[in-house]
Amino acid sequence: MNKFIIQVNGTVYGSTASFRALRFTESVLSLGHQVSSIFFYQDGVTNSSALICPASDEHDLHRAWERLAKEHNLKLVNCVSAALRRGVLSEQDAQENNKTSANASNHFVMGGLGELVTGIEESDRLICF
Question: Which of 72, 63, 92 lies closest to 80 in space, CA to CA?
Answer without folding.
Answer: 92
